[in-house]
UniProtKB/TrEMBL annotation:
Name of the protein: Probable purine permease
Keyword hit for Transport: yes
Keyword Membrane set for record: yes
InterPro entries membership: EmrE-like, PUP_plant
Keywords: Membrane, Transmembrane, Transmembrane helix, Transport
Topological type in the membrane: Multi-pass membrane protein
Compartment(s): Membrane
GO terms of molecular function: purine nucleobase transmembrane transporter activity; purine nucleoside transmembrane transporter activity
GO cellular component assignments: membrane
Length: 341
């Protein structure tokens, strides 16, 4: 069992509106830069899939500094660490699938397809943690799932110049596979936290991410060794379209942004739920669409516009439902106090 801290802390209720959740939501949104820089890497000559997978998980040493200020150094049990190390391997596989999708799809397209993870998360959350759905959350899931379907109807219209239709379709399929796997990971992570009775603290969230980061980094490093990535990196840096110095800056910046996103994801599962994480990930979509159009000069087709509108509609529906549930709970609590008095 995980070590408990103060009674008040351990009994802290999960809420989508708590400061803990807000902090991790901000970290997740700030991590959107990782998606952008990963696409920049591929656009300007980068091609190493295992290296790009490593970038998504390797900046976990950044967590060691804030963890050093924690009064309790070990907030999790050995069994919980082991489970999250296993989750790290699944996370690395998902990063590889996402890297493959990013290599062949425009950022705006891959982001829209990845947003279908909400549908997968909903199914796995229902099966693994018995997630309860309100009409508003169900409506959000439907709307955010229809978006990628609409996008697929315009398949190929935004295919990068010179890229084969086969690679475009492969990228699309890998994006769907990545969405399915991350949906399972979110729900499985929530189940592991419940079973391990993990306390909702910043230190515990960082330690879970640390376990994920270490195991996923080792997994990606093995892939890089087998694929001879270390021998190719110097040559790739010299041939990079933006120059050698910017090549390494892109790699470093990408890793930092992804770490912000990763700790945000883990913290949101701990502070709220796997479904809320999926909703927040879908919220990244408008930011990524805007970033892709502004910085990467990607086309913004009609199908993307419709998919984006459906995604925003779905997110607003979810937030409205959450507010109604929160107001209902507060009203019930007040009536209970009046009855007791």
């Amino acid at each position: 069992m995980a070590t408990t801290q103060e009674g008040q802390e351990s009994s802290r209720p999960k809420s989508t509106l708590s400061p803990f959740t807000l902090v991790h939501a901000i970290l997740l949104m700030a991590g959107s830069g990782g998606n952008l820089l990963l696409r920049v890497y591929f656009l300007h000559g980068g091609s190493r899939l295992w290296l790009s997978s490593l970038l998504q998980v390797a900046a976990w040493p950044l967590l060691l500094l804030p963890l050093s200020f924690s009064t309790k150094k070990f907030n999790l049990s050995l069994s919980v660490y082991s489970v999250f190390a296993f989750i790290g391997i699944l996370w690395a596989l998902d990063c590889y699938l996402y890297a493959l999708a990013s290599a062949y799809l425009p950022l705006s397209t891959s982001s829209l397809v990845i947003s279908s993870q909400l549908a997968f998360t909903s199914v796995f959350a229902f099966l693994l943690v018995r997630q309860r759905f309100t009409p508003f959350s169900f409506n959000a899931v439907v709307l955010l799932t229809i978006g990628p379907v609409v996008l697929s109807m315009g398949e190929g219209s935004d295919r990068p110049e010179g890229e084969s239709k086969g690679k475009y379709i492969l990228g699309f399929l890998m994006a769907v596979a990545a969405a399915a796997l991350i949906g399972f990971i979110f729900a499985f992570m929530e189940l592991a936290m419940r079973r391990g009775k993990v306390v909702q603290t910043y230190a515990a969230a960082m330690e879970m991410q640390l376990a994920i980061g270490i195991s996923s980094t080792v997994f990606c490093l093995v892939g890089m060794v087998i694929n001879n990535d270390f021998q190719v990196i110097p040559r790739e840096a010299n041939e990079f379209g933006l120059g050698k110095t910017k090549y390494y800056l892109v790699l470093i910046g990408d890793a930092v942004f992804w770490q912000l996103s990763n700790i945000g994801l883990v913290g949101l599962v701990s502070g709220a739920s796997s479904l809320f994480v999926a909703i927040m990930t879908a919220l990244q979509l408008p930011f990524l669409e805007i970033l892709a159009v502004i910085f990467l000069h990607e086309k913004f087709s009609a199908s993307k516009g419709i998919a984006l509108a459906l995604s925003i509609w779905g997110f607003v529906s979810y937030l409205y439902g959450e507010k109604k549930q929160s107001d209902k709970a507060k009203k019930a609590a007040q009536q209970e106090l009046v009855t007791i008095a």
